[in-house]
Amino acid sequence: MKCKVCGEKAVIKLRQHNLALCEEHFIERFRREVERTIKKYEMFDHGQPVLVAVSGGKDSLSLLHVLKSLDYKVTGLFIDLGIEGMSKKARAKVEELAARLDVELVVVSLKDKYGESLPEIAKRRPQHRICSLCGMIKRYLMNKTAYDLGIKVVATGHNLDDEVSSLLSNTLRWDVSYLAKQSPYLPSVHPKLAARAKPLAFLTEREIAAYAILSEIDFHRETCPFSRGAKTLFYKHLLNEIEVRSPGTKLRFYREFQSFRKRYLRDIDTGMPPLRECKICGMPTSLEVCAFCRLFQRDN
Ligand code: AMP
Ligand code: ZN
Ligand code: ZN
Fold first, then answer.
1. Which parts of the chain sit beneath pLDDT 50?
2. pTM, whole model, 2 decimals?
């Protein structure tokens, strides 16, 4: 297998593009794809600070690495949820890469700052799925940290496989309000809400893993002990089966959906109540007290 660009030995074959590439040209293409997504969606420019949410996994560490190498002004954010057997190890990987890249890293510990770890919060609220609590807490802390630092955009490491599996799930339920929000970039809709960017949304998990390995990024490999919905994994598996038979399906499904969304869904009224400021923390919410602050109210 030879690199299509230079004819040297290829290290990867991208079946969806019918393209084999050597290390140098794979990295070059990866960087170009990220830059293209950022520009196409007008996510941020070079002078603007970006808060990169890093979990310690390959996607977000690769995101931090590629954005830094493209000369973007990045600050890392690690949220320590206090999950035994995971958070400490993940944090170590994040700290290691941030130090190597000479990137400023902000660590927010749920336990230190708010008194309880995620498992402790979840224990008090057996009626809530821990993964939904975790998602809500992370979204809140990403936005709150960005606001406190005066940063207007938060970037996450979501990849094409993540995006396509939630697209499939939302489509199967025809969940129009979720579909309307499913985009690589969501602009801010409130002065206290950061824009959200997913610069890796058009790159597969496999491409990102290859980038991480070739860039010698040491990432946290274990999945969360509370493991994300079995359904997500099932959809990813199904989509991979389809992809084997018909390479390029994932990318097409996501890309075409983006044109459809732009045309028909972007400005629809999803019936969400208007945003106001939380009585306790002042951050935007549709309720009197935001979902995050409600976690810490007595008898809740
Ligand atoms: P997940 O929700 O675990 O699929 O993660 C999606 C994205 O959220 C990751 O690519 C990261 O950008 C971000 N993220 C997840 N967990 C953390 C964490 N503990 N700290 C900071 N960012 C995170
Ligand atoms: Zn080459
Ligand atoms: Zn609040």
1. none
2. 0.96
